[in-house]
């Protein structure tokens, strides 16, 4: 793993009065936890109280992480991709308890005719794996991609269990959105027009080809041998599932085989297509601002009370219990988001919702305190689902505002 010493003068940004301990935790990540480049932003009741960035956006070339640096956030992308679906629900384009096939007739193949929108968004549809691996040309052709998704057979009886749809959730969300949006927009296009523009943020699901690479953070991934030496930092059952080539987790991670390459998230051909579950790239403060809007009622995005209630309500558990068939741990999902659970406790109550990303990133909304939070980095960590770098910042913040982390049961 690349080791880089980051000078203190490369830590920039600021915090409001009283939040100095959050800045201290951020600085310690570089001094003590091997951070190369990172950013963190936090909104409290609509006010930005933390906006920090620092280190190197490219640790090899020693180019500094700037205020406008864009970083790829892996599965934390799901939190942004699910906002367009929430907007569609508020506009009465979607009924959560109707079958997906109501809006997407071809979806009703191979036993999927009764899968509801709510089950799909809550990782209960059994569609974590795509039997036909997807290349980038198929992903870029939304009609071809839709045909592959519609033909997929569930891995378990929908509604009876849940399992993290690591790669596929965003694909299904995007096609569902295309079917109900009067303009037929994909999730990436919808996000730009209906989320990024109203909020004035910069975040992309599918990087524009005209955007230069000089602002992109380089992802510093670990090599396979390094992962083998750090397996003790991840849940044992999840590791066993990943190492089993026939396991659901292993197969789900190979849905788009090119993503298994070490340099995948530094390739423009990978970043330019819409991978709504994994390749969102943008400014971290933009994610925090979006979550801040969600945490305070979503009025800037036109979200109604019914939609906000659905986002904040406790997840509807599958009949077979909370053990996730993919990551092999007790989890909770609702409408595209992870809810607080024993594996990852965030926010101050079960009303919180968010999305962690592989390697250590995290974004979430905490309606109880009006908090919108986001952290992302370019050195991929081994810990899952809680990275000590992120947790140190989050803990410092909640100690300031007097709200302990959610003691999920």
Question: Can you summarize this structure?
Answer:
This protein is of the alpha+beta class and 409 residues long.
Q: What proportion of the residues form beta strands (DSSP E)? A: 5-15%
- Total DSSP helices: 14
What does the radius of gyration come to? 20 Å
Give the SSE order as H and E letters: EHEEEEHHHHHHEHHHHEHHEEEEEH
Structural category: alpha+beta
Helix content: 25-40%
Average pLDDT level: 93
**Which sheet architecture does the biggest sheet show?**
7 strands, antiparallel
Protein architecture, described:
The chain has 409 residues and is an alpha+beta fold. Helix content is 32%, strand content 13%. It is built from 14 helices and 12 strands. It has helices at 20-32, 77-90, 117-121, 136-140, 142-151, 169-180, 187-199, 224-228, 236-243, 248-253, 268-272, 284-295, 305-312, 388-401, and strands at 11-15, 37-44, 47-58, 63-64, 71-72, 203-204, 281-282, 333-334, 337-338, 353-356, 362-366, 371-377. The strands form 3 sheets. Strands 1, 2, 3, 4, 10, 11 and 12 form a 7-stranded antiparallel beta sheet that branches. The chain has a 3-stranded antiparallel beta sheet with strand order 5-7-6. It has a two-stranded antiparallel ribbon with strand order 8-9. The longest helix has 14 residues, at 77-90.
Structure keywords:
7-stranded antiparallel sheet, globular, 409 residues, 32% helix
What's the SSE blueprint?
Layout: E1 11-15, H1 20-32, E2 37-44, E3 47-58, E4 63-64, E5 71-72, H2 77-90, H3 117-121, H4 136-140, H5 142-151, H6 169-180, H7 187-199, E6 203-204, H8 224-228, H9 236-243, H10 248-253, H11 268-272, E7 281-282, H12 284-295, H13 305-312, E8 333-334, E9 337-338, E10 353-356, E11 362-366, E12 371-377, H14 388-401
Antiparallel strand pairs: 1-3, 2-3, 2-12, 3-4, 5-7, 6-7, 8-9, 10-11, 11-12
Helix pairs in contact: 1-14, 2-6, 2-7, 2-13
């Amino acid at each position: 793993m690349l080791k880089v010493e980051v000078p203190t003068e490369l830590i920039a940004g600021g915090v409001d009065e009283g939040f100095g301990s959050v800045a201290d935790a951020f600085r310690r990540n570089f001094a003590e936890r091997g951070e190369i480049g990172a950013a963190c932003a936090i909104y409290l009741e609509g006010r930005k109280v933390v906006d920090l960035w620092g280190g190197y956006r490219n640790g090899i070339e020693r180019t500094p992480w700037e205020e406008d640096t864009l970083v790829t956030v892996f599965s934390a992308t799901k939190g942004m991709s699910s906002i367009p679906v929430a907007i569609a629900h508020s506009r009465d384009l979607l009924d959560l308890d109707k079958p997906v096939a109501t809006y997407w007739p071809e979806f009703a193949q191979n036993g999927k005719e009764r899968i509801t929108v709510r089950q799909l968004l809550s990782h209960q549809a059994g569609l974590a794996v795509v039997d036909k691996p997807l290349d980038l040309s198929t992903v870029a052709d939304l009609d071809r991609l839709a045909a592959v998704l519609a033909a997929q057979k569930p891995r378990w009886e929908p509604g009876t269990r849940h399992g993290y749809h690591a790669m596929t959730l965003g694909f299904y969300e995007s096609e569902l959105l295309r079917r109900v949006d009067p303009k037929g927009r994909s999730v990436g296009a919808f996000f730009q027009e209906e989320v990024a523009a109203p909020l004035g943020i910069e975040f992309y699901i599918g990087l524009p080809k005209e955007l230069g690479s000089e602002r992109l953070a380089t992802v510093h991934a670990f090599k396979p041998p390094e992962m083998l030496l750090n397996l003790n930092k991840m849940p044992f059952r999840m590791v066993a599932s990943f190492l089993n080539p026939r396991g659901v987790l292993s197969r789900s991670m190979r849905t788009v085989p090119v993503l298994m390459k070490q340099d995948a998230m530094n390739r423009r051909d990978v970043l330019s297509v819409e991978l709504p579950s994994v390749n969102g790239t943008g400014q971290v403060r933009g994610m925090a601002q979006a979550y801040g809007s969600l945490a305070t009622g979503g009025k800037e995005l036109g979200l109604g009370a019914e939609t906000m209630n659905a986002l904040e309500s406790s997840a509807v558990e599958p009949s077979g219990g909370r053990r996730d068939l993919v990551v092999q741990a007790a989890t909770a999902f609702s409408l595209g988001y992870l809810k607080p659970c024993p594996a990852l406790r965030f926010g101050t109550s079960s009303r919180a919702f968010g999305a962690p990303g592989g390697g250590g990133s995290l974004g979430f909304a905490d309606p109880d305190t009006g908090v919108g939070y986001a952290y992302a980095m370019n050195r991929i960590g081994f810990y899952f689902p809680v990275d000590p770098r992120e947790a140190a910042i989050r803990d410092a913040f909640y100690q300031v505002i007097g709200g302990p982390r959610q003691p999920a049961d």
